[in-house]
Every structure is written in structure tokens, then in C-alpha cells.
Amino acid sequence: MNPIEKILTDFPMMILDGALATELETHGCHLNDPLWSAKVLMEEPTLIKQVHTNYFAAGADCAITASYQATVEGYKDRGLSEVEAIRLLKESVHIAVKARDDFWSDEDNRYGRPKPIVAASVGPYGAYLADGSEYRGDYQVSEDQLVSFHRERIRMFIEAGAEILACETIPCLKEAKALIRVLKEFPHIYAWVSFSAQDGVHISSGERIADCAQWLAKEEQVAAIGINCSAPAFIHSLIHEIKNETAKPIIVYPNSGEVYDASSKQWNEVMPSQSFSTSAKSWYEAGARVIGGCCRTKPEDIEAIADWARQS
């Protein structure tokens, strides 16, 4: 049984964590860097453990590792050796596992909830490029090249003890197909695949989310299909599109609703029509069964979701 199925067998939904980078910035980290939160693995890994712990305390059933933008190539570009880079990729998993185990060792933290799992964040090729192409999917590489790019770091995450892979912010079906090819090399491991979206029907490349869900639906190792790092306003429609094509659990963890200005590299606040927690409840009612937050969401948002989810 895959880790998501195991939780959903006993609980009505699975709660993800929220934004890692946002919380690291709250703790004083400066992430305007090609390595983004992977930079903190080099500098202050104890802060990453603290953020994971905060999300577990808020009610998260899953920690997503600080490896979204972590690659051997990226660390080597920063001057690290290959050995050091590999250690940091594996350390992203070790930190999350240690945070989970320490949290779960307190019996007071176990009431009415599943034991949290650790998902290794497998960001897209565009995250390594750090040029915004994970929101376009227009990088000029073949599917075979994408397989080669992802293979070794996925192997590292599995060796480090990740219980599931979070293949997230995927902009195009070609990259999803490449990831599934790699996944089949590790038949005992499951993954979720979540795309970034440009509207309520299309992922970032312009392809229909329904076509992506239909293609992934037949893949046994895919534990859930969905959307992350996208506007909350698109989520309800995207759930409907996915639900029409698959019986797999639907996973959604959008941004808070703020809009990122790539030129100024700043987030612009937008007053949401309703709270993130209220929106999350509507996504659950629409059919999503794995729900959390991406950019600019906080432990308070996850706690608010847990407040109603654990009463279901």
C-alpha cells in the first residue's frame, strides 16, 4: 500500500505542510538566490528542521523536504564538490525524518492523526535553471535528457529514506513522463505528480490538465495527481478536470493568493475573497483528498485546515 493510500484508508484526508521558504524568510534567511531554500541546507539546516517541526505541530501529515531547487549541478556551480552536493541532497531527507521522528516520539502528538510521512521534493528541471521556466515548460531539452537529469537525485532521495516523492510544480506532460520513466526504475517507491497551472483548465505549458491526469491515471506508482504553486482561484475547476479522468486521490496545495512580480522579485498582496482554510474546505468538498499550501502559506493556514479536517 502506498503511503497516501495508507493514510486515506483511515482518515478522510491527508494534510500537507505549507511554504518552507516563507517560514525560512520569517526566520531571517535571504533566499533571493538560484539555490532558493536549498541554500539554507548549506548554511542553517537547523532552521529547516524547526520549520518542519512547526508544520507537524500545526497538524501536517507530511513534510516536503527542502530539496525543490537542490541538485548536484546547482551545488557544484556554487563551488561544492560532488561528494558535498550529494551529502546535502540526502541531508534534506534526513532533516525531515529527524523532525518527524522527534515529533512523533511525544505520545501527546499522536492523538487523532496518522504518523506523518516524509516526501522528497523533486522540483522540475526549470527550478535548476532558476529562470522561471518551471512556470512555462518551454526549456529546450528532450525527454531523455530530463530522465538523465532527474535519475540520480531521485536515487539519492530514496537511499536517504524518503517515503514518497513529491514531483511538484511540473510545467509540462513531457517532464511528467520523464519522471515516471525514472520512477519505474524504483518499483517499490511511489510519487505524487502535481503541476503548475496557468488557469482552471491548462497547466503552465498550455496542455490540458485533463489530458495529463488521463495519462497518469494508468501508472500504478503514481499515488496522487494534482496542482501546486498556482492561484487558489483556479483550483476548484482543476479538481473537476482531474476528477473526470482518474480515481486516484487529488492533491492540491496552491499559493496563498498573493501574486509574484518577477521583475521586482516581490510578492504583491491581494485580498482574498475568503480565508485559505475556507477555500481548502471547498476543495475537499469538490473532491481533493490531499490538501496543503505552497508559496506564502504559513503554519497558521495548516492549523486552520486541521481544525476542521480533524472534526470530519
From TrEMBL:
This is S-methylmethionine:homocysteine methyltransferase. GO terms for biological process: methionine biosynthetic process; methylation; S-methylmethionine cycle. PANTHER family: HOMOCYSTEINE S-METHYLTRANSFERASE-LIKE ISOFORM 1, ZGC:172121. InterPro entries: BHMT-like, HCY_dom, HCY_dom_sf, Hcy_S-methyltransferase. Residues 2-309 form the Hcy-binding domain. Its cofactor is Zn(2+). Zn(2+) binds at C229, C294, C295. Keywords: Metal-binding, Methyltransferase, Transferase, Zinc. It comes from Alkalicoccobacillus plakortidis. Binds 1 zinc ion per subunit. GO terms for molecular function: S-adenosylmethionine-homocysteine S-methyltransferase activity; zinc ion binding.
